[in-house]
């Protein structure tokens, strides 16, 4: 035989899976609640998100980055190829705590790119690969496991093992993407929060509120990383290991 299934680990695995699912619901609920709560609170300086981004870019000597409006809610992002900070309908031109915090966070990504942050560069290299492997890796791993189960010869079982291993290696790229993404997102939030405090956009109480919003948003990436780690573990347990 070439395969161990979840076996004695099934209870631990499903307990972790349920735990991550509950954690995800809690994180999402908290984020939505905070975003809504501070979307109606005007920042102490009265400056809108666009103006704050411009100040932050200038202070960090980041030039050539433009601010654009994008459709949707919480669809804010920094596009390194176009060098644009795209602010959603709930952020662009708004002066709420949530809007300024989100805009400062995205500006933090622009600063990461222009300061040649090593980890940010790594993510940019991994991102297009992870986008592809996330769609095919699990299927390849499962096909390999099925072949291992159905194999009637040693050669077929070996082929299934190697196919499954290929799928696991491909999924490891997805896991690596989430692994580097979490510290990048936290760093962007720290940069944004530093600017909010230094430039006086918010009061001390509002700073704490902005931090709670950005850290709650960052927690979604922590959940994604935990989920990716659990998926990788499941694939490894499904494939098992070869016996000599």
Explain this structure to me?
By secondary structure, this protein is mainly α. The protein has one domain. Helix content is 70%, strand content 5%. It contains six helices and three strands; from the N terminus they run ααβββαααα. The protein has helices at residues 10-38, 49-59, 97-114, 118-150, 154-198, 204-239, and strands at residues 66-69, 77-79, 84-87. It has a three-stranded mixed sheet with strand order 1-3-2, covered by helices on one side. A hairpin with a 4-residue loop joins β2 (77-79) and β3 (84-87). α4 (118-150) packs antiparallel against α5 (154-198). The longest helix has 45 residues, at 154-198. It is elongated. It starts with 9 loop residues before the first helix and ends in a 5-residue tail after the last helix. The relative contact order is 0.17. The mean pLDDT is 92.
From the alpha-carbon coordinates, what is the Rg to the nearest angstrom?
22 Å
Query: How big a fraction of the residues is strand?
Result: under 5%
Q: Globular, elongated, flat, extended or rod-shaped: what is the shape?
A: elongated
What structural class do you assign from the helix and strand content?
Answer: mainly alpha
Average pLDDT metric = 92
Total helices: the number is 6
Low-confidence parts, pLDDT < 50 over ≥5 residues?
none
Spatial separation of the terminal alpha carbons: 9 Å
According to DSSP, the number of beta strands is 3
Order of strands, main sheet, comes to 1-3-2
Helical proportion?
over 70%
Query: In this structure, how is the largest beta sheet organized?
Result: 3 strands, mixed
Number of domains: 1
SSE order, as H and E? HHEEEHHHH
């Amino acid at each position: 035989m070439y395969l161990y299934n979840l076996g004695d680990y099934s209870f631990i695995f499903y307990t972790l899976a349920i735990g991550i699912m509950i954690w995800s619901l809690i994180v999402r609920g908290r984020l939505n609640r905070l975003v809504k709560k501070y979307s109606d609170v005007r920042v102490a300086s009265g400056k809108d998100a666009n103006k704050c981004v411009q100040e932050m870019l200038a202070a960090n000597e980041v030039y050539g980055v433009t601010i654009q409006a994008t459709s949707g809610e919480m669809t804010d992002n920094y596009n390194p190829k176009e060098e644009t900070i795209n602010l959603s309908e709930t952020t662009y031109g708004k002066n709420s705590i949530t809007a300024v915090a989100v805009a400062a966070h995205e500006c933090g990504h622009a600063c990461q790119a222009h300061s040649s942050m090593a980890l940010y560069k790594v993510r940019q290299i991994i991102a297009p690969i992870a986008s592809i492997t996330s769609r095919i890796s699990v299927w390849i791993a499962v096909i390999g496991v099925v072949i291992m189960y159905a194999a009637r010869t040693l050669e077929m079982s070996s082929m299934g093992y190697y196919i499954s291993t290929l799928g696991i290696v491909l999924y490891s790229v997805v896991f690596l993407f989430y692994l580097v993404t979490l510290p990048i997102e936290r760093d962007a939030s720290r940069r944004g929060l530093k600017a909010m405090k230094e430039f006086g956009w918010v009061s001390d109480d509002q700073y704490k509120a902005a931090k709670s919003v950005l850290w709650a948003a960052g927690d979604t990436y922590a959940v994604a990383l935990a989920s990716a780690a659990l998926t990788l573990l499941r694939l490894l347990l499904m494939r098992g290991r070869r016996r000599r």
